[in-house]
Amino acid sequence: MRDSHHTFFVIQLLRLAYALPLILKYQSQTHFQEVSIPMNASCKSEHILTSPDMGKIILTVICLLAGVAGNADKPVVARLTRYDVKQGHDAEFRAALTEIVSTAIRLEGNMMAEAYQEENKPSVLWLIERWSSAKELEKFAGSRQSKALQALLQTALTEPPKAYHLTDLEPLTKKQWRAAPDSKDQPLTVMLFVDARAGTQQQFKDTYHIAMPKFRGEAGVVTYQLSEIEGDGTQFVTYEKFRSRDAFQYHLNFPPVKPVIEYLESNVKQPPFQNGLHNLVEIAPLTRE
To answer: What residues does the ABM domain cover (predicted)?
Structure first.
């Protein structure tokens, strides 16, 4: 199925390539000449009307967009996992998470990996991961570090781990995910879980779509992401990393936040929305610029 989607996409690009010179013919006085553009092995060479340099331009566009098509079926895999750790197992579990993070971030297929504890409930730990593909995540699952963590799950937790599979909205690049606070910063990471009333979720996404560039442009923001939690489409979680608590307070009073707050005050299933707020303290990787 994925191969057929890829082929269909490339065919549409080739059709665009054929149509483009004809459109340009009516828009300029450029003299066109007939050239041949070789297709893939399963297609015959065809002729199109193009200017001397147009063939090169079209082929470049096709190659670039076909590359995008080739990656379209390999979305970023984002996973957020909560661990409720038993008393007496804290140190070994933190050490295992630190090993997971420090190993993962050295791998080409990893976009980001971070471990946290709840500020007001240190026995609750979180692992946040993003991988370039499901294949990369599966490969890491077979690592020594992952197996060591899996072994601890049998004895170190008060309840089974809770994994959230995410789809990032307004997604970030690997470079953006790897942005780090400055050495002088005292960073605070905040997550807000949102359980929206059915029928209002698109309003929530639209509101964030407008606000997101402004949020990310704040001087005190290191990273800001909104993700949809896999399910019925009404659950979301934010990831907000600030340079300091003062930066977080500034954000709360930042005018573009107002429409988001107004939505949250009226449209979550179980108000107040602040119940979904989690202040996190970083365990790993503790990277600083």
So the answer is: 77-166, 188-277
